[in-house]
Design goal:
It is a single chain. The chain has 135 residues and is of the alpha+beta class. Helices cover 24% and strands 24% of the residues. It is built from 4 helices and 6 strands, in the order H-E-E-H-H-H-E-E-E-E. Strand 5 and strand 6 form a beta hairpin. The chain is globular, with a radius of gyration of 14 Å.
Length: 135
């Protein structure tokens, strides 16, 4: 496996157990799925650091807005793939658009920060909420 893929998966594992907190990014204290993705990919050098100050989103934006903020941002740094490998990012449908992200550990196993699970956990993309439409 490529070194960057191993680094991404290993860094994601260090966030396991961190509580889910909207728009937060403090390991062990609170993180949402988007901030988990940002921290893991930036901290491993997979994507360059960037200014997040102008990237705010309401907790329920996927229910009241049609703006594809997440996929538009992700496409600046990543290419789409059909067969996810360890370290890849998957984007899942939620509400009106793709609004949830998870990091592949070993497909269909992922690590993600999910409010229904109350934190950063392993998930199986073939079951439940994670089995919905993927990008």
């Amino acid at each position: 496996m490529d070194a960057w893929r191993t680094a991404v998966v290993e860094e994601a594992k260090t966030w396991l157990g961190t509580p889910w907190v909207h728009a937060s990014d403090i390991k062990g204290a609170g993180v949402d799925c988007v901030h988990l993705m940002w921290n893991v990919f930036v901290d491993t050098g997979t994507i360059p650091p960037f200014n997040r100050d102008d990237w705010n989103y309401p907790i329920d934006c996927m229910l009241h807005d049609n703006t594809e903020r997440l996929t538009n941002w992700i496409e600046q740094y990543m290419d789409e793939t059909v067969n996810p490998l360890p370290g890849d990012l998957i984007v899942l449908w939620g509400g009106r658009f793709f609004s949830h992200v998870a990091i592949v550990v070993d497909w269909p196993l992922v690590i993600h920060s999910f409010h229904k699970e109350r934190g950063v956990v392993y998930g199986d993309t073939s079951l439940g909420d994670l089995s919905k439409k993927k990008y």
